[in-house]
């Protein structure tokens, strides 16, 4: 077990359980490993905490919690990056932004594909899509 100091206090984690982004996240290409923070409150939102820069953490959710018809299917290239085949599950997550005015938005245009069998994730940009990078949850 290892420990890091974060905005959540001191966090102990098992390096074998890290969420690994081989290419980083959009805007954060050098951040590859994250801890999924235990949810202290019930609800659809959760945090991932960067290991390489403890000042960085993101709120994520399953977008189908708010948009029932949201559906993304990873292509062969994406499955290869996740080290999974077509039979293995891949979950879709979205970054949530909670500004000071509490006008919460979700990024549907750049979802995160997560493969639980490999603990790998990639963020993709949906081209030619009607989804927006700032979809307000009040519109859900």
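Sequence proposed for the structure above (140 residues):
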């Amino acid at each position: 077990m290892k420990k890091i100091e974060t905005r959540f206090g001191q966090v102990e984690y098992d390096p074998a359980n890290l969420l690994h982004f081989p290419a980083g996240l959009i805007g954060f290409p050098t951040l590859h490993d994250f801890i999924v923070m235990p949810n202290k409150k019930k609800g659809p939102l959760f945090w991932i905490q960067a290991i390489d820069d403890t000042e960085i953490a993101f709120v994520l959710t399953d977008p189908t919690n708010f948009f029932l018809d949201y559906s993304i299917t990873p292509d062969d290239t994406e499955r290869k990056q996740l080290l999974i085949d077509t039979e293995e599950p891949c979950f879709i997550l979205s970054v949530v932004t909670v500004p000071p005015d509490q006008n919460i938005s979700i990024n549907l245009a750049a979802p995160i594909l997560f493969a639980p069998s490999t603990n790998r994730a990639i963020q993709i940009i949906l081209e030619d899509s009607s989804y927006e990078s700032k979809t307000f949850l009040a519109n859900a």
